[in-house]
Amino acid sequence: MACESEKWVLMVTAQTPTNIAVIKYWGKRDEDLILPINDSISVTLDPEHLCTTTTVAVSPSFDQDRMWLNGKEFSLSGGRYQRCLKEIRSRASGFEDEKKGVKITEKDWENLHVHISSYNNFPTAAGLASSAAGFACLVFSLAKLMNVKEDHGRLSAIARQGSGSACRSLYGGFAKWIMGKNDDGSDSMAVQLADEKHWDDLVIVIAVVSSRQKETSSTSGMRESVETSKLIHHRAKEVVPKRIVEMEEAIKNRDFESFAHLSCADSNQFHAVCMDTCPPIFYMNDTSHRIISCVEKWNRSEASPQVAYTFDAGPNAVLIARNRKAAALLLQRLLFHFPPRSDADLKSYVIGDKSILQDVGVQDMKDVDALPAPPEIKDNIAAQKYKGDVSYFICTRPGRGPVLLSDESQALLNPKTGLPK
Ligand SMILES: Nc1ncnc2c1ncn2[C@@H]1O[C@H](COP(=O)(O)OP(=O)(O)OP(=O)(O)O)[C@@H](O)[C@H]1O
Ligand SMILES: C[C@@](O)(CCOP(=O)(O)OP(=O)(O)O)CC(=O)O
Questions:
Q1: What interface predicted TM-score (ipTM) does this complex get?
Q2: Which contiguous run of DSSP H or E holds residue 11?
Q3: Residues in domain Mvd1 C-terminal (predicted)?
Q4: Are 24 and 273 in contact (CB under 8 A)?
Q5: Scanning 83, 184, 205, 299, which has the fewest C-beta atoms within 10 Å of its C-beta?
């Protein structure tokens, strides 16, 4: 190693997207290695609107591994963090930068400590898959820092050990997590099905539904389902394998009708499994159910589906529209049923790609109040409004996979001290 007294700090910054499953992962066959009982498929969300940025640094002057999450020191003692660090360290290779006077041999990595600072540009632990983007970014950035020469598939198998769904965030576009058969998990990894340009008509609207923190985490919820639900085993054996084949085909052919049917059916079955768990787990709430009804009614009134919906382990709706026109018509309906509180400002009620508001034809709250009831609604009850039941909407699209950020101004650690900026 370069002279211990030298104060060099070597740093890497990366940005990684989050993802939403359209064929759900729910249930493990190995809790420690995080091995699932079925394959899953996801859409990667545009990191411009939802992403994690992580800077990792190494220096002979660091005396322990440390992490900061959204600016606050965060303990790395959890088994999942330790596992990811260990797996990456064991694959590290030597590195030399003569100009900086940095020389690290393969062996040195065992004794060198890292500093990690990570920031989510969206709420953490709010049902928007921050753990997926977070672990993918941690593994990707550490792998770059430690000169790990493994492909994205191998890295995805490491991210999987942080949080299962994280393995799919190593790719843009559409990803499949292959459950694998091996007991050691070596064949349980994600692959890319298609990149983000393949189906760029799709527009994604996320309704962030007001709720308290969820009572059952995904990790414990799926454990309880595996232990108590019969439906989950039928789903994993009989239902998901067929759906995976059909979903891959739908994505390949940009067949929105099949894509929508499969996504909605799979989300509904996942929530049915939660209900079939003892005691039952309720992730969706009344607002989630109202959003489903609104989409189902509209889809049924059209010749073919305009929007797919899917819900993870929480009440937030992820709505995938076949194109921008359908997304604007969807948002008209959603703003009609779920207007913001009177004191809210429209600009902070619809975030992400706000240009959608022009297509919707609303500029301010007056325009929202004037929106007509959707034409497919025939009775007064169905035309009801639920002011304030949605916290805000995020408008986004399918997006790219992890990238390195070379501009030092985007780093979250100070290049001289290795401490948060
Ligand atoms: N940027 C990050 N880097 C590393 N770990 C993170 C990061 N962001 C979140 N996490 C981890 O993920 C945890 C939150 O995961 P949790 O599953 O509770 O919420 P979520 O992933 O945001 O929502 P959901 O799983 O319901 O979609 C945090 O407590 C932290 O351990
Ligand atoms: C409903 C889901 O979002 C469940 C995600 O579960 P996690 O990946 O958060 O669980 P752990 O592997 O225990 O960390 C469906 C999915 O993303 O496929």
A1: 0.97
A2: strand 10-17
A3: 204-404
A4: no
A5: 184
Model-level pTM? 0.97
Is 286 in the same domain as 241?
Answer: yes
211 shares a domain with 153: no
Q: What is the pLDDT along the chain (421 residues), one digit of tens a residue?
A: 544 446 899 999 999 999 999 999 999 999 999 999 999 999 999 999 999 999 999 999 999 999 999 999 999 999 999 999 999 999 999 999 998 889 999 999 999 999 999 999 988 887 889 999 999 999 999 999 999 999 999 999 999 999 999 999 999 999 999 999 999 999 999 999 999 999 999 999 999 997 666 789 999 999 999 999 999 999 999 999 999 999 999 999 999 999 999 999 999 999 999 999 999 999 999 999 999 999 999 999 999 999 999 999 999 999 999 999 999 999 999 999 999 998 888 999 999 999 999 999 999 999 999 999 999 988 777 789 999 999 999 999 999 999 999 999 999 999 999 999 9
Would you say 189 and 156 are in contact if contact means Cβ atoms under 8 Å apart? yes
The minimum-distance atom of ligand 1 relative to the CA of 132 is: 21
127 Cβ closer than 6 Å to some ligand 1 atom: yes
| Domain that residue 145 falls in | 10-195+406-410
Domain membership flag for residue 416 = no
How many angstroms separate the alpha carbon of residue 63 from the centre of ligand 2?
34
Whether residues 293 and 179 share a domain: the answer is no
What CATH number does the domain containing 335 carry? 3.30.70.890
- Does 3 fall in a domain? no
Residue of 353, 344, 358 whose CA lies nearest to 399: 353
Measured from the Cβ of residue 409, the count of other Cβ atoms closer than 10 Å reads 7
Task: Please work out whether the CB of residue 138 comes within 6 Å of at least one atom of ligand 1.
Answer: yes
- Ligand 2 centroid from CA 164, angstroms: 6
Q: Which atom of ligand 2 is nearest to the CA of 219?
A: 13
Cβ 386 vs Cβ 290: under 8 Å: yes
